[in-house]
Design brief:
single chain; Cytochrome C Oxidase, Chain A; 13 helices; 75% helix; binds protoporphyrin IX containing FE
């Protein structure tokens, strides 16, 4: 018989499980989600938010890359959507959906290659679009796009399989997650098409396809997951009941109908029809956001169901839902104007809506929800002390960045162009700072984990052992 090794000083001693059967899932912590969080933070800090500082200054002529602005704009949008939002949503989705559906966690042999292809494809495409030219850039653009598309098929396929095999609860999160998984597959196809079109077009994806794609990702892929996951937990944090399918179905259908209208808007040959469809899609998504924030998220209340230390993170969730209201109103305004006139209306308002959603909703919610649900913060959440100065270092820069970036969009045509672009760049710098603060707290939490576990073990040892 094999001899068991004596436990080390730092191991946490757990009672053996009471259940013994072949289907038992061992309680081994899967830390592969840290690769997704780490990859998302790396892409945001080294590319997305950095380009958010450089790009407006280049457009203003302060930095010497004015000729590269179309490429830098797309590289920024891609890094933020696929790298920052996409990697995080994929990581959380692949980790949480099996739990929600009552399935075994997805094995590392599935989650690891997906994360590497998604991360590699994002960083590779951002670098190719920002720095390379000629034949090498064309090939690189298609190769990186294909890697990312494969990863997207992997995310969508794994999620659909998990949901199909899982328990069939009639709860809103299942429908949001199923729709979101289907949009991951659509995104994969669009990325392949965009890579080929972009390679043919001087490494710039044709504007209409690129614009439609960015909205489809925000609403089809990201919003479905954001409100799917929120619907299952956020109302509870604030002492309310989770929504029923009946309450969430209308905004859910509007959101997906809007994303579908945006997808279809890439097809008609006439510009008027395309603009009308895109406008209709944006307006429908706008109504959905306004409706979903109070229904599946939360706009007010005290998170008294959370521990004192975790309550600071709940403010991010409330603020994100308020910024969804702002984004929704701006989308209804600009989208309905285009649906009626058949022209591409209110560029600045759309830009403000895009960033109310990108910075205000996506970024604040990632930072808040990570602190509330990611296991790496579990021990910090359990601390008895109330939030301290470090908790505010991320909060204020991110809120400031969102407000400044929305203002920079809305002020297009109403103030001096250079000053407006400098304002956008300052928003980028604030956003970068806030995110660096968050990255620092993730690293600290990961480093503190073994020490905290050791302390907990020490406090549970018998006095004689001590
Ligand atoms: C405070 C931080 C940010 C700043 C300063 C910033 C700045 C900019 C600027 C100047 C543009 C070009 C607008 C134009 O076409 O005139 C842009 C486009 C864009 N941004 Fe941001 N941005 C920020 C954060 C974000 C975030 C967090 C996201 C998404 C999660 C995002 C997504 C996008 C997208 C999708 C585009 C359009 C890209 C395209 O046309 O292909 N941005 N941003």
């Amino acid at each position: 018989m094999q001899k068991s090794t004596p436990p080390g000083r730092d191991d946490i001693q757990l009672d053996p499980p009471l259940a013994h059967h072949a289907g038992l899932v061992p309680a081994v912590e899967d830390r592969s989600y840290l690769i997704y969080i780490g990859g998302a933070l790396f892409t945001a800090l080294a590319a997305g938010f950095l380009l958010a500082v450089i790009l407006p200054l280049s457009a203003a002529g302060t930095l010497p890359w004015a000729g590269s602005v179309p490429r830098l704009t797309q590289a920024h949008g891609w890094a933020q959507l696929q790298g920052w939002a996409g990697l995080f949503v994929a990581g959380m989705g692949l980790r949480m959906m099996p739990r929600f559906a009552g399935r075994r966690p997805l094995p590392v042999r599935v989650t690891l290659p997906i994360s590497l292809a998604l991360f590699g494809g994002t960083i590779g495409r951002t670098a190719v679009q920002s720095f390379l030219a000629g034949r090498l850039a064309q090939v690189g653009f298609i190769v990186m796009g294909s890697a990312a598309a494969l990863a997207m098929f992997g995310v969508g396929g794994s999620l659909l399989l998990t949901l199909a095999r899982g328990r069939k609860h009639r709860e809103p999160w299942r429908y949001f997650a199923t729709a979101g998984a289907c949009w991951w597959l659509v995104w994969g196809v669009l990325v392949l098409v965009a890579s080929i079109e972009g390679a043919r077009n001087g490494i710039v994806v044709p504007a209409r396809l690129d614009d439609a794609m960015t909205w489809i990702v925000m609403f089809g892929v990201v919003a479905n997951f954001i409100w799917g996951i929120q619907s299952r937990s956020v109302p509870i944090f604030f002492g309310r009941k989770t929504p029923t399918v009946r309450r969430a179905i209308v905004p859910g259908v509007l959101l997906n109908a809007g994303a579908l209208a945006i997808l279809v808007s890439t097809l008609p040959p006439a510009a008027t029809q395309r603009d009308r469809l895109l406008g209709l899609g944006l307006a429908l998504c706008g109504v959905a956001l306004i409706w979903l924030a109070p229904t599946a998220g939360s706009l007010w209340g005290q998170a008294h169901r959370l521990r004192p230390r975790a309550r600071a993170a709940a403010r991010y969730v409330l603020a994100a839902n308020w910024f969804a209201e702002v984004a929704g109103l701006l989308l209804v305004w600009s989208g309905s104007a285009s649906a009626i006139s058949g022209d591409y209306e209110f560029f600045g308002v759309r830009d403000a809506a895009r960033h109310a959603f990108g910075v205000g909703v996506i970024t604040l919610l990632i930072v808040g929800m990570a602190q509330l649900v990611a296991p790496v913060f579990a021990l910090e959440r359990a601390e008895a002390r109330p939030p301290g100065a470090r908790d505010y270092v991320t909060w204020w820069p991110l809120v400031g960045a969102t407000l400044l970036r929305i203002a920079a969009g809305l002020l297009l045509g109403h103030m001096n162009g250079t000053a407006r672009l400098q304002m956008a760049s300052a928003a980028g710098a604030l956003g970068w700072l806030g995110l660096a603060g968050f990255a620092f707290s993730v690293i600290q939490a990961a480093r503190k984990e073994p020490r905290m576990k050791a302390l907990l073990t020490g406090s549970t040892r018998s006095p004689t052992a001590r």
